[in-house]
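Open question from group meeting: does this chain pack into something compact, or does most of it stay loose? Before anyone orders reagents, we agreed to write out a predicted structure and look at it together. Recording both the input and the output here so the notebook holds the full record.
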Amino acid sequence: MSTTDDRSTETEQKHFKPRGLSDRIAYRLVRFMRFFADAFFAGRYGHRAVILETVAAVPGMVGGAVQHLHALRKIKDDDGWIRTLLDEAENERMHLMTFIEVAKPNRFERFLIFIAQGVFFNLFFLLYLISSKTAHRVVGYLEEEAVYSYTEYLEGIDRGEYENIPAPQIAIDYWKLPEDARLRDVVIAVRADEADHRDTNHDFADQLSK
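Structure tokens returned:
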């Protein structure tokens, strides 16, 4: 989670160029998922964020659990991976709780949350068991898309396309925002978090490739 002091309105957008077959598979998979997100939630960034964060909260928990079991089996230190991944899962969960307050999803969208989480959890768990490197690369690319999407959301707020409503109290408390914070401040904070997760997961994938 980014703090108030180091959070910037100018989060750098990066793209990791795929190297090798597994990276290309990871990238194509994420682009495929992006296609459906655009089809279902074009221009509805609050609702899009709810679905995005439902999926984004899964990898950290799966990775943390698998790395925990791996460390127990090998009787070795995890080099901080478990705590990093579990913190990522918690951070993404807070993103979800925040945007539920913003978007107020209806019953159908809550059903989509249920389906998306169930399907993605099982697929990602299998992927992590087969190739943890590819799994972390998928997350890195997902977070690249998240940074891109939140940048579009922020630009829409600045253009007046989306109402810059008061920030939910849960967001003010979590990111320690000013009491008069607005939605724009929340999007900036969330985007900075996603950029951190992007860089962390690409780094994990790089370490596993060695």
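Observations to bring back to the group:
DSSP finds seven helices and no strands in the chain.
Confidence is low (pLDDT under 50) at residues 2-6.
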